[in-house]
Amino acid sequence: MLEVQFECHEYLIAALLHALTLGMEEQFVGQLKYLDGYGSPEGQNRHSLCLLYKDFAPHSFGFALYWAKLMEETDEETGYRRLQLDAEGKPQYDRDCQPVLGGLIFHPGVGTPGIDDGSLSVELNPQKGPHWSVHT
Questions:
Q1: What is the structure's pLDDT at 2?
Q2: Is 115 a member of any domain?
Q3: How much of the chain, in percent, has pLDDT values that exceed 90?
Q4: Which of 128, 2, 126, 124 is nearest to 61 (CA)?
Q5: pLDDT digits (tens, 9 = 90+) for 12-57
Q6: Spatial separation of the C-alpha atoms in residues 81 and 73, rounded to whole Å
Q7: CB neighbour list of residue 4: distance below 8 Å, 6 or more residues apart
């Protein structure tokens, strides 16, 4: 599940508009979808909650990933522990645990990555051209 902090909504819209002007909206939304389903088997309830917030690098975001709470009993079919669900059938997330922290970073594709490109981040396998990437 992807949750955007309230003060970040306008910034998210601005980043999406920037992606549209670059013709990169599909790539940007793809990264958001990746964070939305992080650690979740396809077609199942989300196993993580991603809190998205504004980063200091242009068109970039920070995030905190929290894991779903698990029940003690296991599913008879899969053998895995079941997710702890609320009254609406949605997973509950453990915000008391240490989250995974990272960033959804915009790389403008000009200059030297992480040095003079404005992203303030380095990629192990730099891509050519503007793009967003998930860093943890």
A1: 65
A2: yes
A3: 26
A4: 2
A5: 999 999 999 999 999 999 999 888 877 665 655 567 788 889 998 8
A6: 6
A7: 12, 51, 52, 53
In contact, 26 and 12? CB cutoff 8 Å: no
Question: Is 76 part of any domain?
Answer: no
Contact between 5 and 50 under an 8 Å Cβ cutoff? The reply is no
Long-range contacts of 84-87 (CB under 8 A, 24+ apart): 85/45
**Cα maximum dimension of the chain:** 55
Residue type, 88: E
Q: Examine residue 90 and state whether it is found in any structural domain, yes or no.
A: yes
Sequence-distant (6+) residues with CB within 8 A of 52 are 2, 3, 4, 5, 8, 12, 32, 35, 61, 62, 63, 104
* Residue with the two structure tokens 């508009």: 17
Q: Which residue in the block uniquely carries the two structure tokens 């970039």?
A: 60
* 46's tokens: 């989300």
Domain that holds residue 6: 2-71+81-135
Residue 38 neighbours by CB under 8 Å, 6+ apart: 47, 48, 50, 65
- Number of domains the chain contains: 1
pTM equals: 0.77
